[in-house]
UniProtKB/TrEMBL annotation:
<feature type="domain" description="Toprim">
    <location>
        <begin position="3"/>
        <end position="153"/>
    </location>
</feature>
<dbReference type="InterPro" id="IPR013826">
    <property type="entry name" value="Topo_IA_cen_sub3"/>
</dbReference>
<dbReference type="InterPro" id="IPR006171">
    <property type="entry name" value="TOPRIM_dom"/>
</dbReference>
<dbReference type="GO" id="GO:0140225">
    <property type="term" value="C:DNA topoisomerase III-beta-TDRD3 complex"/>
</dbReference>
<dbReference type="Pfam" id="PF23546">
    <property type="entry name" value="Zn_ribbon_TOP3B"/>
</dbReference>
<feature type="compositionally biased region" description="Basic residues">
    <location>
        <begin position="821"/>
        <end position="850"/>
    </location>
</feature>
<dbReference type="InterPro" id="IPR003601">
    <property type="entry name" value="Topo_IA_2"/>
</dbReference>
<dbReference type="GO" id="GO:0000793">
    <property type="term" value="C:condensed chromosome"/>
</dbReference>
<comment type="function">
    <text>Introduces a single-strand break via transesterification at a target site in duplex DNA. Releases the supercoiling and torsional tension of DNA introduced during the DNA replication and transcription by transiently cleaving and rejoining one strand of the DNA duplex. The scissile phosphodiester is attacked by the catalytic tyrosine of the enzyme, resulting in the formation of a DNA-(5'-phosphotyrosyl)-enzyme intermediate and the expulsion of a 3'-OH DNA strand.</text>
</comment>
<keyword id="KW-0413">Isomerase</keyword>
<dbReference type="GO" id="GO:0006265">
    <property type="term" value="P:DNA topological change"/>
</dbReference>
<dbReference type="InterPro" id="IPR013497">
    <property type="entry name" value="Topo_IA_cen"/>
</dbReference>
<feature type="domain" description="Topo IA-type catalytic">
    <location>
        <begin position="171"/>
        <end position="593"/>
    </location>
</feature>
<dbReference type="InterPro" id="IPR000380">
    <property type="entry name" value="Topo_IA"/>
</dbReference>
<keyword id="KW-0799">Topoisomerase</keyword>
<dbReference type="InterPro" id="IPR023405">
    <property type="entry name" value="Topo_IA_core_domain"/>
</dbReference>
<dbReference type="Pfam" id="PF01751">
    <property type="entry name" value="Toprim"/>
</dbReference>
Length: 861
DNA sequence: GCAAGGTC
C-alpha cells in the first residue's frame, strides 16, 4: 500500500485536519522531537487505497543567517553585509530536529500533500518541507505527480474536504517573495544595527542599552512613539471660551445646555455672545427629537483586538497577554489565539461553546436567557482565511485559572457571549433651545434594552436622568448663562493599544509579531511603559528617531515596510524577477547605508546633548597594563572599562558586579585583575580585562575569565585552580573560587554548577597531586581548630572532593542562583560525589578528563 | 551581540 505524507504548519492543525479527513478514526503517536504528532489512517487517494500520515512542522523549518565568520562584529565591515557576505539556511530551532523528523516520517512515502497555512509564509514553508523530505521519498514513476498543495480558507469539515479533492501545486513565486524578505530584513537590519551599535557604544558611556538596533518594523514602531512625543513637546495651549446655559427643568432640577457654537477662540466675541444672552429670562424650545439608536455588539475577537483590550482594560502588555493566551490555548480553554479573522465560519457551532457557559457562576443567567430566547446572528466580520475567531472552548473558574489567565479568559468569554447577544438599544432625545439669538442643545440617552452591554458592562450606556417631555414653543426659565475660559490640552503619550492600531493600519508586523516589536523597543530602552500602559520614549529613542529624520527620514517612516512589500508582492505575483527585485532593493538600501554612515555626525550632534562621552563616564577602578593609569568602570549596559589615555575600551561580562581584585596583576600584560561575581548565591571569578578581550591562548575564548585561562604558572589560572571535569556539562571544568572562603565554592567555568564545600575552612588550596581514582586534583584544606569536622583534633586534610570519604560529606552540589529552576538537574542528593560524571574505579571513562594536568598538556601541545 | 517571520 502506498503512503501519503501530509504536513501542516503546527501540531494543532495536523490534529484537526486529520480528525476531519479520517472522520475521527486515526491512530496518533508522538514524533521523535516530542512536539509534533503523527496521525495515521487509511483512505483513498487518486483512486487507490493508501495509508495517510498526517503530521506538522512548528512554523518555519529554516532560518536565514550569515556564514559564521561574518558574524564576528569586529572583523567584518557592516557594509559588506549588503552583498559580499554569503548567507545560509540554518535549522530554525535545532532542538526540534525538524529536518531529521521530517526525513524519518517521509522516508518511503510516495506522495506528499502540503497543508501549510495559506499565506506567503506558509507557501515558503512548503518548500522548506520539500527540501527536507523529497530526497528520502520514493522515486516517482515517470511523469507521475507526487507533490500536492491543499488550499483551504478555514478549518471546517467542508473546507478541508473540498481542499482535499481539489489539490493544487505549491506556488514557487510566493515562496520566493518570502526568501527575498528574509534576506532583505537580515542584511539591512544587521548592517544598520552593527554600525550604530559600534559607533555609539564606542563614544558614549551612558546609553543604557547594549544594542542600538534598527529594523524595518521596530524602527517605525519607535517612530510612532516619538512622533507623539514631538506633538506633546511642540504643543502650545490655546485659550478658548465656551457659553454654558442652565435652565430650570422641574422645580428641583436644572438642565445644562451645550452651546451650538461649541467654542470660540476670541474672548471679545465670546463676551459679545454672552452679552446677547445673559439678560434673557427664557429659553425657547425650537425642536425636539427622539431617536432610537443602537450600540453595535462587537465583532468576533481576533488577536490584535484581544491585545488592545488586554493592554487598555486589563493592564497586560501584548507580549504577556500573548503568552497567557497561548497557555490558555494549549490547556484547551480557548481556541487558537493567533488569527486575523473576525468572522465566524458559516458552519461554526455557536451554541455549543455557549452551552458550556450555562452554569458559570458569573454569567449563567445571561447565557441561559440567550439559549432560551435564541441567540442573535453575529455581525459580519472580516474573513482572513486563517483561523476562526478566538472563543472559549470550555468553562473555567477563577480558582482554576488564577490571576492573569483568568482575567484574559473572562474577557474572551464575555466578548464571545457579546457577539451572539443583541445590540444595545437606547433612546437619544435632543432638545434644541434658543436663548436670545443663540442656540443651545441638550441631549440625553436612556437605555431601552441593554443587549450585549449586560455581559460587557464596561461598554454600557451611562445612566442618565431622562430629559423633560416638551415640544416646540415651550419655554423654560433660564437659571444662568455663563462664560467659561478653558485651554486646549496636549495629547498624552501613545498608549500601547493606540500603537497596535497604528501598526496594524500601516502594516507594520503581523498579529504574531506586533507584540515582539513593541517588546523590542522596550528592551532596547528606547521607550518605557508608564502608567496606563503609555509608551514614553527615552532620550535614546528620541535622539535616534530625530537623527533618522535629519539624515534620511525614510529609515523611520512607516512607509519603509510597505514600499518594500509592494516590490515583494510583484515577486509573489510572478510579475518581477526575484533576483532583480532583491538586487535592486539591496542596492537602494546599500546607498542609504553609506549615506547614513557619511552623515552620522548629524545624529551624533543630537547624541552629544543627551549622553556623556566614554572618557567622562564611570569611576576609576583598575589600572591599565599599558599606561598604568586608572581605567574607568562604566556600569551602564554594556558594562566596560575605558582607558581614556590609551583610548581603549574593554568589555566585561554582563549581568554581574565588578570589583577590583586585591590590586593583583595579570603576569602576561600587567593589567590589574577585576573580580566578577553574580550575586550572593552565584559564582565569582577573577578576570584580566585585556586577556578577556584579547585571549592570549588558543583555547581561551573571548569574554572569559582567569578560570578559563591556561597560563601554566599564574596563581589565578585554570591550570592552577582547576580540579576536574564538570559533573554536568560536557566541556566545563570545576575551578576553585579562591575568594569564596569561608563558605568555599568550586564552580564550573562553563555552566551553572556550583559545589559548596568546607564551610569554615580557613584555607583551601589546589594540590599538585591528583586522585588515583578519578584523576581530579586533590585539595589541601586547613580547618579551624574549634570547628573542624575532621575526626580527632585534626585540622588539615588532603583529598579528592569526589572520592575522599571525609570530603564527600562536606561537599554539596548546587546551581548558581541565576539558573532557572526548569533547567536544574536532580536534587542535592545526587550532588554528593561526582554524580553522573563519576566513573567506576580503575576504568578510565570515555570522556577525556579535563583536570589540571590534561589542561596543561593541551596547552603545551 | 544583529532583522522579521513562523510556532512551543
Amino acid at each position: 500500500m502506498k503512503t501519503v505524507l501530509m504536513v501542516a504548519e503546527k501540531p494543532s492543525l495536523a490534529q484537526s485536519i486529520a480528525r476531519i479527513l479520517s472522520r475521527g478514526s486515526m491512530s496518533s503517536r508522538k514524533g521523535l522531537n516530542g512536539t509534533c504528532s503523527v496521525h495515521e489512517y487509511t483512505g483513498t487517494f487518486t483512486g487507490q487505497l493508501v495509508r495517510f500520515k498526517m503530521t506538522s512542522v512548528c512554523g518555519h523549518v529554516m532560518t536565514l543567517d550569515f556564514l559564521g565568520k561574518y558574524n564576528k562584529w569586529d572583523k567584518v565591515d557592516p557594509a559588506e553585509l549588503f552583498s559580499q557576505a554569503p548567507t545560509e539556511k540554518k535549522e530554525a530551532n535545532p532542538k526540534l530536529n525538524m529536518v531529521k523528523f521530517l526525513q524519518v516520517e517521509g522516508k518511503g512515502c510516495d506522495y506528499i500533500v502540503l497543508w501549510l497555512d495559506c499565506d506567503k509564509e506558509g507557501e515558503n514553508i512548503c518548500f522548506e518541507v520539500l527540501d527536507a523530505v523529497l530526497p528520502v521519498m520514493n522515486q516517482a514513476h515517470s511523469g507521475e505527480k507526487t507533490v500536492f498543495r491543499a488550499r483551504f480558507s478555514s478549518i471546517t469539515d467542508t473546507d478541508i474536504c473540498t481542499a482535499m479533492v481539489r489539490l493544487g501545486e505549491p506556488d514557487h513565486n510566493e515562496a520566493l517573495s518570502v526568501d527575498a524578505r528574509q534576506e532583505l530584513d537580515l542584511r539591512i537590519g544587521c548592517a544598520f544595527t552593527r554600525f550604530q551599535t559600534k559607533y555609539f557604544q564606542g563614544k558614549y558611556g551612558n546609553l543604557d542599552s547594549s544594542l542600538i538596533s534598527f529594523g524595518p518594523c521596530q524602527t517605525p514602531t519607535l517612530g510612532f512613539c516619538v512622533e507623539r512625543h514631538d506633538k506633546i513637546q511642540s504643543f502650545k495651549p490655546e485659550t478658548y471660551w465656551v457659553l454654558q446655559a442652565k435652565v430650570d427643568a422641574d422645580k428641583d432640577r436644572s438642565l445644562l445646555l451645550d452651546w451650538d457654537r461649541v467654542r470660540v477662540f476670541d474672548r471679545e466675541i465670546a463676551q459679545m455672545f454672552l452679552n446677547m444672552t445673559k439678560l434673557e429670562k427664557e429659553a425657547q424650545v425650537e425642536a425636539t427629537s427622539r431617536k432610537e439608536k443602537a450600540k453595535q455588539r462587537p465583532l468576533a475577537l481576533n488577536t490584535v483586538e484581544m491585545l488592545r483590550v488586554a493592554s487598555s482594560s486589563l493592564g497586560m502588555g501584548p507580549q504577556h497577554a500573548m503568552q497567557t493566551a497561548e497557555r490558555l490555548y494549549t490547556q484547551g480553554y480557548i481556541s487558537y489565539p493567533r488569527t486575523e479573522t473576525t468572522h465566524y465560519p458559516e458552519s461554526f457551532d455557536l451554541k455549543g461553546p455557549l452551552r458550556q457557559q450555562a452554569n458559570h457562576p458569573y454569567w449563567a443567567d445571561t447565557v441561559k436567557r440567550l439559549l432560551a430566547e435564541g441567540i442573535n446572528r453575529p455581525r459580519k466580520g472580516h474573513d482572513a482565511g486563517d483561523h476562526p475567531p478566538i472563543t472559549p472552548m470550555k468553562s473555567a473558574t477563577e480558582a482554576e485559572l488564577g490571576g492573569e489567565a483568568w482575567r484574559l479568559y473572562e474577557y474572551i468569554t464575555r466578548h464571545f457571549i457579546a457577539t451572539v447577544s443583541h445590540d444595545c438599544k437606547y433612546l437619544q432625545s435632543t432638545i434644541s433651545f434658543r436663548i436670545g439669538p443663540e442656540r443651545f442643545t441638550c441631549t440625553g440617552k436612556t437605555v431601552i434594552s441593554p443587549g450585549f452591554t449586560e455581559i460587557m458592562p464596561w461598554q454600557s450606556v451611562p445612566l442618565e436622568e431622562s430629559l423633560p417631555t416638551c415640544q416646540r414653543g415651550d419655554t423654560f426659565a433660564v437659571a444662568e448663562v455663563k462664560m467659561l475660559e478653558k485651554q486646549t490640552s496636549p495629547p498624552d503619550y501613545l498608549t500601547e493599544a493606540e500603537l497596535i492600531t497604528l501598526m496594524e493600519k500601516h502594516g507594520i508586523g503581523t498579529d504574531a509579531s506586533i507584540p515582539v516589536h513593541i517588546n523590542n523597543i522596550c528592551q532596547r530602552n528606547y521607550v518605557v511603559v508608564e502608567s496606563g500602559r503609555r509608551l514614553k520614549p527615552t532620550n535614546l529613542g528620541i535622539v535616534l528617531v530625530h537623527g533618522y529624520y535629519k539624515i534620511d527620514a525614510e529609515l523611520v517612516l512607516p512607509t519603509i515596510r510597505s514600499a518594500v512589500e509592494k516590490q515583494l508582492n510583484l515577486i509573489a505575483q510572478g510579475k518581477a524577477d526575484y533576483r532583480q527585485v532583491l538586487g535592486h532593493t539591496l542596492d537602494v538600501f546599500k546607498r542609504k547605508f553609506h549615506y547614513f554612515v557619511d552623515s552620522i555626525a548629524g545624529m551624533d550632534e543630537l547624541m552629544e546633548v543627551s549622553f556623556s562621552p566614554l572618557a567622562a563616564t564611570g569611576k576609576p577602578l583598575s589600572r591599565c597594563g599599558k599606561c598604568h593609569r586608572f581605567m574607568k568602570y562604566i556600569q551602564a549596559k554594556p558594562s566596560r572599562l575605558h582607558c581614556s589615555h590609551c583610548d581603549e575600551t574593554y568589555t566585561l561580562p554582563q549581568n554581574g558586579t565588578i570589583k577590583l581584585y586585591k590590586e593583583l596583576r595579570c603576569p602576561l600584560d600587567d593589567f590589574e585583575l577585576v573580580l566578577w561575581s553574580s550575586g550572593s548565591r552565584g559564582k565569582s571569578y577573577p578576570l584580566c580585562p585585556y586577556c578577556s578581550n584579547h585571549p592570549p591562548f588558543r583555547d581561551m575564548k573571548k569574554g572569559t575569565g582567569c578560570n578559563e585561562c591556561t597560563h601554566p604558572t599564574c596563581q589565578h589560572s585554570l591550570s592552577m585552580l582547576g580540579i576536574g571535569q564538570c559533573v554536568e556539562c560536557e566541556s566545563g571544568v570545576l575551578v576553585l573560587d579562591p575568594t569564596s572562603g569561608p563558605k568555599w565554592r568550586v564552580a564550573c567555568n562553563r555552566c551553572s554548577v556550583v559545589a559548596h564545600c568546607f564551610e569554615n575552612a580557613h584555607r583551601v588550596r589546589v594540590s599538585a597531586d591528583t586522585c588515583g581514582t578519578c584523576e581530579a586534583a586533590l585539595l589541601d584544606v586547613d580547618f579551624n581548630k574549634a570547628r573542624s569536622p575532621l575526626p580527632g583534633d585534626g585540622t588539615q586534610h588532603t583529598g579528592c572532593v569526589f572520592c575522599d570519604p571525609v570530603f564527600q560529606e562536606l561537599v554539596e552540589l548546587k546551581h548558581a542562583a541565576s539558573c532557572h529552576p526548569m533547567h536544574r538537574g536532580p536534587g542535592r542528593r545526587q550532588g554528593r560525589g561526582r554524580g553522573r560524571g563519576r566513573k567506576p574505579a580503575g576504568k578510565p571513562g570515555t570522556r577525556r578528563p579535563k583536570d589540571k594536568m590534561s589542561a596543561l598538556a593541551a596547552y603545551f601541545v
